[in-house]
Amino acid sequence: MISKFKPTWMIPVVYNISPSKLKDMGIKAVFSDLDNTLIPWNNPDGTPQLREWISELKKNNIELIVISNNKHRRVQRALRSLKLNFISRSLKPLPKGINKALRDYHLHHKEVIMCGDQLLTDVWASNNANVRSVLVKPLIESDAWNTKPNRFLEKLIWKKLRNKYDDLNWQEDINDRN
Predict the structure, then answer these.
(1) Would you say 157 and 170 are in contact if contact means Cβ atoms under 8 Å apart?
(2) Which of 53, 68, 102, 115 has its CA 20 to 30 A from that of 91?
(3) Is the distance from CB of 67 to CB of 86 less than 8 angstroms?
(4) Which sign, positive or negative, has the C-alpha torsion 64, 152, 128, 172?
(5) Cα(20)–Cα(117) distance, integer angstroms
């Protein structure tokens, strides 16, 4: 059961992921969580680094699709300036949102990766959907009130993951070994 929480890769921040490497790996779309992954949960403006990463994804013909548990209006408002497609109320850790995006955008699970800052929602949903996952560090240390219980449980899960897997290391970028 603990393997359901194991990320494929661990990268400090989402925009460290090289779009050209993704293209070489056959990735056609990056699915991403919204809060504390792409943007801080309490500040909807994307950073210059994020905007540059989005531009590089586009240059490499890779679509960025947000998959969020938030309400439609919240995600729409947060992404207004970034002009990204999204799936709201995705019900992570269930694979519902990821599977909907796969269907809606006519993608195969090997053509996507899912990025997020939480083991209990993003990584677990990825593994449930048979999609490779990228765990990133939260952009800011504070969380919305509804995320705090997950962070507590994550600490317990991390202990079990580290006991079982000795290859859980933060990397600067993804590689094609997985």
Answers:
(1) no
(2) 53
(3) yes
(4) positive
(5) 22
How big is the chain, counted in residues?
178
* Dihedral sign (CA 29, 55, 134, 26): positive
What is the pairing mode between strands 29-32 and 112-116? parallel
Handedness of CA 173, 126, 159, 146 (dihedral sign): positive
How far is residue 122 from each of residues 49, 73, 81, 154, 171, measured CA to CA in Å?
22, 20, 24, 12, 18
Q: Model confidence over 125-157: pLDDT tens digits?
A: 999 999 999 999 988 665 555 556 676 778 888
Contacts (Cβ under 8 Å, ≥6 apart) of 8: 113, 126, 132, 133, 134, 178
For residue 92, give the DSSP letter. Answer: T
